[in-house]
Amino acid sequence: MEEKVRRIMSSVFLVDIEKIDENASPETLPKWDSLGHLNLITSIEEEFGITLDDEQIIEMLNYKLVLEVIRECLKASS
Amino acid sequence: MNALTFSELFRLNEELGELLREKEAISLKILSNVTMNQLKPILEYALRSESLNAVAEMTSYDNILQESMHIQGKAIPVVFWELCNLKSSFAFEIEYYTPEEISRYAEKTTKELELLFDNLRQSPLVIFNRFSHILFTNHTITGNNFERFVKQLNDFLIQHAPPNFLLIDLDRIFSAISLDASVDLRNYYSSKVLYTVNFLKSYTSQIVPVILSTYAKSRKVIILDCDNTLWKGIVGEDGWEHLAISDKDKDGIYFKEVQCILKSLIKKGIVLCLCSKNNAEDVEEVFQHRHDMVLKSDDFVIKKINWNDKASNIREIAGELNLGTDSFIFVDDSEFEINLVKEQLPEVKTIQVPVKLFHYPRMILDHLPLCFSLSFTNEDLARVQMYQQELRRTTEKSRFQDMDDYLASLGIKVVISEKNPEEMERLTQLTQKTNQFNLTTKRYLPGEMQQFYQSSHTDVLSLSVSDKFGNFGITGLCIIKYSKNIAVIDTLLLSCRILGRNIESVFLMEIVKRVYMKRYDLIQATYKKTLKNGIVESFYDKSGFALLGSDNDERRYETTCRKFLGNARPVKYIKVIS
Fold first, then answer.
1. B38 shares contact with chain A (CB less than 8 Å)
2. Of A12, B77, B432, B559, which shows the fewest CB atoms inside 10 Å?
3. Under a CB-based contact definition with an 8 Å cutoff, are residues B15 and B4 in contact?
């Protein structure tokens, strides 16, 4: 799952996958603005087959939190 | 595009953008009063996949009118003007507005539309959506103010929009992919993102052909195969009487409707041509005798009915019409021909006749936007006549290019086997059915074939062909009769499906090798003319056999194995397995 998230992030934020590390956040990735966030959400929902509610979308403030929310979602749906 | 995830598309779009950077940019401006940012990569990607260096730009949010003033030159505006967001919650507030309030909004909006029309009148193409209410109204409760408001403004649009405005019917897209798949209310309320990526992909696929035909070249010529493309059946095998072409024939209606669509295109300046591997007389016979066929012989400006490869024929058509092949559409039922043209002439748009024939008319219809731009001129209309005149002035040029490269890429394999009992029935059938590539056209019955199998003075060789796309099965037969010191080719035939790949010369070489291995040297062969086998009239001449003599219907040939094999040039790209 981590690999998939890193791949998605590197695609939508247009950086090499190595740049997506534990500390990745809007501060380290210039393309992670509000529109970048929308593209990230679209891709996560599409590729993990989940639907995030609006609060979860806001919680996903950095790479670690993104993973956490996806885990939570996958657990709830299984 | 639909097979890609959004993140893949996003990445590929960037990569394509880098590749195309040197090409002239094609500018698209997205004007909207809802958030449409995800349209940018999708639209760019769809156009970049067609080798256009498309650059879409988001203009400032909810500022359609002001932004439209700055649009210049060849830029194409794509406008998303959502009435639901004329002001916040408009679609619901309007339900309790007074009639006066409603008409004030209608008046204000029509004024703004008129200004927009003026600002964008010079653009080559403006993509503008018809207004839609169905996202915000209920199916069973009619008489909504919002619904009436939308209808009123749509009427205004249809009456007053300048001719360069292409009005897109969003309701058609909603019905194609469903409302639920089209909108994301969660994102609409949080950030005014109304449309889903699914919707944007579907929308893009509707508008891209029109942009292509405006910006790049629109397609002006449709080149069609005959058998199983213009009609159902194979004229050389089935005869013109048995082709399915109209309502009364099984499956005829699909071909009739395709012909109706094509017929209507002639009036709009589209040039129709034929390119078919057939005897020209057979095809003319269809036109002469099948009065139930919608298209007539004269409807086709150029007919390339011959046995040359189709890419060469298409290049010749381009030369004769003096048009680039990038303005061509090619329709054929054969995967081989489609792939040949794709590989050699990638700029030609190819359409393969679908296996499920009921999709066929619709498939043709779906490609028509490639043929038309909004700027349609009298010259377009006169085109068919013009070409017919032009043709009389030009002389034919033949060019053969890269055919061997293409054939080599197919990985063709032929298997030659000798008197395989399992094949006997099929081989007998081939002698009965094969008309075109058949040197002597001797029809044999199962009993006769059985005798050949049992005789030690007769060889029965079968040919099976496959390539990387699939297996053609048993498609060739040779019967050789030995007497004293002469080998006589009694029968040599190939199914038409595999012609154009030089398989015939490989087969002949293998035949000669077998004869030589049996310690024979002299070979005799005959061409016996029929109404159908003109295609092999000079097969033995081309193969280096010496003509011994001829009368009206028959030509007799001779060669020796040594001479033949000494002169033969092997066909490197065909692998022989025996």
1. yes
2. B432
3. no
